[in-house]
From TrEMBL:
This is Anoctamin. Pfam families: Anoct_dimer, Anoctamin. GO terms for cellular component: plasma membrane. Residues 27-244 form the Anoctamin dimerisation domain.
Length: 852
C-alpha cells in the first residue's frame, strides 16, 4: 500500500469520525468534560407546565455552576426522548466535597502490609488478579479543604475525584436544587425526586463507564464495569473471591458492605452445612439400629395396636404400623446427633456474628470509614418531610404498627382450621382402617397428606400476603414522615421484618410448639372453636411432630428460595431481551443505560430482607432439619452471582452511598440469634421425641434398651367409654364386633380401672421435669459459651487498632508539618514585602519633597 493511499485513508477516517461522533462515550461532545449525571424526559400533553419546571430547574443548576448539554429527541433511537447531560466542573466539585466532608488522598500510605500467613498458597486458585482486588493504591486521606489544595495529591483535577464521588456530589446538588423562580419561594418545589414523581423528568442516573461485555474504547475512560462482569458477575467465577475493593470503588461502600456481608455469611454457612451433613449421615448409619421404628412397623407389634381416631366421626380407628414410613423418616432428623447439632448451631451463630464484627472493623479501616459518622445523603432531610411537616408533628403513627401486625392472626387461625378440616376429609377417604392412600407408587397417611398440602397452600398464601404486607409497611412508614433517609430505612426495616417474621414463621411455630400440646384425651378433647365446631385440635402421631416441622420448613424455605431465583431469572431474562434489541454501534451510552432497571433507594433493603429471613430458617428451626444450612449454602453461592449479574448488567449505575455497617439488620440478627437458642431448646424438648426416649432408656427400660418403648409411651382407653360425638360412624363399628375392647392414644395416663383413672402417671411428670431441665441446661450452656466467645473475641482486631492509631499519628504529623511550612512561606513572603513597601514609601516621599 502506497504512502499516499494510507494518508487518504487516515484523512477519510478522521472526517468520518468527525461527521459521525462515537456516542458510546461518557463525555460531552467536546470529548473533555465527563458526564456525571443524565436526566431524561419526553414531551407530552402537559408539556408546557413541565417545560417551565425544567427550564427553571436547569437555570438554577447552571447558577450553581453545573454545565449542561442536551441531546435532542431526533438523536435518540426512539425519536421521542430527550437526554440532559450534567457535568460538574472543578469549582463545584471542590465546593461540595468540602461541604460533604469527602476524604481525599494527600500521601501514599507507608504502613507495611501484613505478611502472608502460613499455607497462603492454598488460596491461590481462589484469588483474583491484584489489579482487580486492589484497583487503587492505599493512601492517607483527609477531608477535602479548598484552602489547602496544595496539601492533597492533585495531579489532574479532571481525575482527582473518581466517578463514584462525582455522581454522589451531583446527586446531592440535584436533590437540593429548587425549580421555582427567585421571586417565588415555594418550599415544595425542590429536588429531582419531586420532578421524577410528577413526571417532569422520566429518569435520573449516573452512567456506567462502558459496556459490560466489552472493554471501553477510550483509553481515558475506566473499564471497571467490564472487569466486574469478567471476574465477578459470571457464574463460572462462583469459587473465586469477590473483588470487594473494586465493588466499593464502582458502586460505593453501601453496596460493597452488603456483598462483603453476604460473602462472609456464605463462608460461615460452609461449616454449618458440613456439621449438618454429618448429623444427617449419622441418622442414615444408625437407620437399621432404630428399634422404635422396627416395633412400629412390625405386624406383630405395631400392626396389632389399634389407635384412637384423630378426629370426630369421620376419622376411623387405625393401626400403629400405618405410620411406619414417617417413623423411619423422623429418625433421620430426630436422633442423638441432633442434640449436639442444636448446641453447635447456637455456638455457630455467635461465632458468625462476632467474626463478622471483626471483618466489618477491618473493612471500616481499609475503606477509610473509621471516623465516618453517617453519609450526608442518609442524614439529610427527606424532601417528603420538608413538604409535609411545615410545623410540629401532630402525633406518632408508630402505635398503628401492632394493629397491622394483628392482621396476620387471621392467616394463622385459617391455617390451623384448614389443617383440622382437611385432615378429616383425608381420613374419611379411607374406608378400610388398615388401608392407606397410594400416591405415585408410595403409601401416605392422612397425617402426611395433610402436612404436605397444608404446607404448600400456606406457602402460596405467604407469597400472596408478602405483596400486601410490603405495601402496608411502606404505607405506615410514610405516614410517620421520618426526617432523614437513614431514619426512614431503619423504621421500614423494623416493620417489614415484623410482618415477614410472623408471615413466614407462624406455621412453623404452630407445628413446633402448639400442635399436639393442647389435645386433651379421649372423652375430654379440646376444640379450636368449641365443641360445636367439631374441629378437634390436632395430635402428633407416635413418631412425633418433628417430621411435620421438617416438612413445613423444607417447603417454605426451599419454595421461597426457588420462587425468588425463578422470579429474578425471568425478570432479568425479559429485561435483557428488552435492552439488547438494537445494535450497540447505533446505541449511545446514555440510551443503553436508560433502558436498564432503576436501582431504588430500597434496592438493598429487599436483598438484606431475603437473606435475614433465610438466616431465621436455618437458626430458629434448624434442630428439625440439619440439612437446612446446606440448602442455604447452595442458594447463597447462586445468590451472590445472580445479584452481581443484576448489578452489573441489568441495573442502572446506582448513586454511590457510604455506609460503615449493615445498619439495623445487625440488631435483628442479634435478636434472631438469641431467640434461636430458646426455640431449638424447646424443639428438642417438646417437639422431638428425644427426651421421652432418654427417660425411658435410663429409668424405665428393663434391659437398658429401647425395646418396649412404644408400648410404654401409649396409654389405654376403653372403647365403650367413648362419647357418641367422638365415636366414628357405623363403617368402623366392626372393631367392636371383632371383640376389640381397648384402643391406644399418645399420652402418659393411668388405664381404666385404676384408682386414678385417666390421670397423668408419674412417668409423665418425670418426662416433664427432664424436658424443663434440658431446656435450662442447654440454654445456660449455649449462652455461657456465647458470652465467653463474645468476650474472648474483640470486635476490632488488635492489628487494626494499632494501624488506626499509627495512621492517626502520621496524619497529625503531616498536617502539623504542612501548617508549619505554610506559615514559614507566609512569613517569608511578608518579610520580602515589607522592605519593598518601605522603599516605595521613601521614593514617594522624596518625590513629593523635591519640588519644594
Amino acid at each position: 500500500m502506497s504512502n499516499e493511499y494510507q494518508i487518504c485513508v487516515v484523512m477519510y477516517c478522521a472526517r468520518t469520525e468527525k461527521l459521525q461522533p462515537n456516542k458510546d462515550t461518557v463525555f460531552f461532545r467536546d470529548g473533555l468534560r465527563r458526564i456525571d449525571f443524565v436526566l431524561s424526559y419526553v414531551d407530552d400533553k402537559d408539556g408546557e407546565r413541565k417545560q417551565e419546571r425544567r427550564k427553571e430547574f436547569e437555570t438554577n443548576l447552571a447558577k450553581i455552576g453545573l454545565e449542561l448539554e442536551t441531546e435532542d429527541k431526533t438523536e435518540s433511537k426512539d425519536q421521542k426522548t430527550y437526554f440532559l447531560k450534567v457535568h460538574a466542573p472543578w469549582e463545584v466539585l471542590a465546593k461540595y466535597a468540602e461541604i460533604l466532608h469527602i476524604k481525599v488522598p494527600f500521601k501514599k500510605s507507608d504502613i507495611p502490609h501484613r505478611h502472608d500467613a502460613p499455607f497462603e498458597w492454598l488460596s491461590y486458585p481462589f484469588r483474583l488478579p491484584e489489579n482487580i482486588m486492589h484497583p487503587v493504591p492505599e493512601h492517607f486521606t483527609y477531608p477535602f479543604n479548598k484552602d489547602k489544595k496544595d496539601f492533597f495529591l492533585i495531579e489532574d483535577k479532571d481525575t482527582f475525584f473518581p466517578p463514584s464521588t462525582r455522581n454522589r456530589i451531583v446527586y446531592y446538588i440535584l436533590t437540593r436544587c429548587p425549580y421555582y423562580k427567585e421571586d417565588r419561594k415555594e418550599k415544595d418545589k425542590t429536588g429531582i425526586k419531586r420532578l421524577l414523581s410528577n413526571g417532569t423528568y422520566t429518569t435520573a442516573f449516573p452512567l456506567h463507564d462502558c459496556r459490560y461485555w466489552k472493554r471501553g474504547r477510550n483509553s481515558d475512560c475506566e473499564s471497571e464495569r467490564f472487569n466486574l462482569y469478567k471476574h465477578w458477575a459470571r457464574f463460572l467465577c462462583f469459587y473465586k473471591e469477590q473483588p470487594l475493593n473494586l465493588i466499593r470503588k464502582y458502586y460505593g461502600e453501601k453496596i460493597g458492605i452488603y456483598f462483603a456481608w453476604l460473602g462472609f455469611y456464605t463462608e460461615m454457612l460452609f461449616f454449618a452445612a458440613v456439621m449438618g451433613v454429618i448429623c444427617f449421615v449419622y441418622g442414615l448409619l444408625s437407620y437399621e439400629d432404630n428399634i422404635t421404628s422396627k416395633e412400629i412397623c412390625d405386624p406383630e407389634k405395631g400392626g396389632t395396636i389399634l389407635m384412637c381416631p384423630l378426629c370426630d366421626q369421620k376419622c376411623l380407628f387405625w393401626t400403629l404400623n400405618s405410620t411406619c414410613l414417617s417413623s423411619w423418616q423422623s429418625h433421620l432428623f430426630d436422633n442423638e446427633g441432633t442434640i449436639f447439632f442444636a448446641i453447635f448451631m447456637g455456638i455457630w451463630v455467635t461465632l458468625f456474628l462476632e467474626f463478622w464484627k471483626r471483618r466489618q472493623a477491618r473493612l471500616e479501616y481499609e475503606w477509610d470509614l473509621v471516623d465516618f459518622e453517617e453519609d450526608q445523603q442518609q442524614l439529610q432531610t427527606r424532601p417528603e418531610f420538608e413538604i409535609q411537616c411545615t410545623g410540629r408533628r401532630l402525633n406518632k403513627i408508630t402505635q398503628v404498627q401492632p394493629s397491622f401486625v394483628s392482621l396476620l392472626i387471621p392467616q394463622i387461625v385459617k391455617f390451623i382450621a384448614y389443617r383440622l378440616a382437611v385432615y378429616a376429609a383425608f381420613a374419611s377417604i379411607i374406608k378400610d382402617p388398615l388401608r392407606k392412600i397410594q400416591f405415585v407408587g408410595r403409601f401416605i397417611t392422612p397425617q402426611l397428606a395433610t402436612s404436605v398440602t397444608a404446607s404448600c397452600i400456606n406457602f402460596v398464601i405467604i407469597m400472596i400476603l408478602n405483596f400486601l404486607y410490603e405495601r402496608v409497611a411502606v404505607w405506615i412508614t410514610d405516614m410517620e414522615i421520618p426526617k432523614t433517609h437513614l431514619e426512614y430505612e431503619n423504621r421500614l426495616t423494623t416493620k417489614m421484618f415484623l410482618f415477614q417474621f410472623v408471615n413466614y414463621y407462624s406455621s412453623c411455630f404452630y407445628v413446633a410448639f402448639f400442635k399436639g400440646k393442647f389435645v386433651g384425651y379421649p372423652g375430654h378433647y379440646k376444640y379450636m372453636f368449641g365443641r360445636s365446631s367439631r374441629l378437634r385440635n390436632e395430635e402428633c402421631d407416635p413418631g412425633g411432630c418433628l417430621i411435620e416441622l421438617t416438612t413445613q420448613l423444607v417447603i417454605v424455605m426451599a419454595g421461597k428460595q426457588m420462587c425468588g431465583n425463578i422470579q429474578e431469572a425471568l425478570l432479568n431474562w425479559w429485561n435483557s431481551r428488552r435492552t439488547r434489541h438494537n445494535p450497540e454501534t447505533q446505541y449511545s451510552r446514555w440510551e443503553q443505560d436508560h433502558v436498564l432497571l432503576n436501582f431504588g433507594q430500597l434496592g438493598l433493603f429487599y436483598e438484606y430482607l431475603e437473606m435475614v429471613i433465610q438466616f431465621g430458617f436455618i437458626t430458629l428451626f434448624v434442630a428439625s432439619f440439619p440439612l437446612a444450612p446446606l440448602l442455604a449454602l447452595f442458594n447463597n453461592i447462586l445468590e451472590i452471582r445472580v445479584d452481581a449479574w443484576k448489578f452489573t448488567t441489568q441495573f442502572k449505575r446506582p448513586v454511590a452511598t457510604k455506609a460503615r455497617n449493615i445498619g439495623s439488620w445487625q440488631e435483628i440478627l442479634n435478636a434472631v440469634a438469641i431467640l434461636s437458642v430458646v426455640t431449638n431448646a424447646f424443639i428438642m424438648a417438646f417437639t422431638s421425641d428425644m427426651i421421652p426416649r432418654m427417660v425411658y432408656l435410663y429409668a424405665y427400660s428393663q434391659d437398658s434398651s429401647m425395646r418396649g418403648y412404644i408400648n410404654n409411651s401409649l396409654s389405654v382407653y376403653q372403647i365403650n367409654q367413648i362419647p357418641k360425638p367422638n365415636m366414628p360412624d357405623e363403617r368402623n363399628f366392626c372393631v367392636i364386633l371383632c371383640g376389640v375392647v381397648f384402643f391406644r392414644y399418645r399420652d402418659y395416663r393411668y388405664p381404666p380401672g385404676h384408682e386414678e383413672e385417666y390421670k397423668h402417671t408419674m412417668q409423665f411428670w418425670h418426662i416433664l421435669a427432664a424436658k424443663m431441665a434440658f431446656i435450662i441446661i442447654m440454654e445456660h450452656v449455649v449462652f455461657v459459651v456465647k458470652f465467653f466467645v463474645a468476650w474472648m473475641i474483640p470486635d476490632v482486631p488488635s492489628g487494626v487498632k494499632a494501624r488506626i492509631k499509627r495512621e492517626r499519628y502520621l496524619i497529625q504529623e503531616y498536617l502539623h508539618n504542612y501548617e508549619v511550612e505554610r506559615l514559614k512561606i507566609q512569613l517569608s513572603a511578608s518579610f520580602i514585602t515589607e522592605p519593598i513597601l518601605s522603599n516605595r514609601a521613601k521614593r514617594k516621599t522624596s518625590t513629593l519633597i523635591c519640588p519644594l
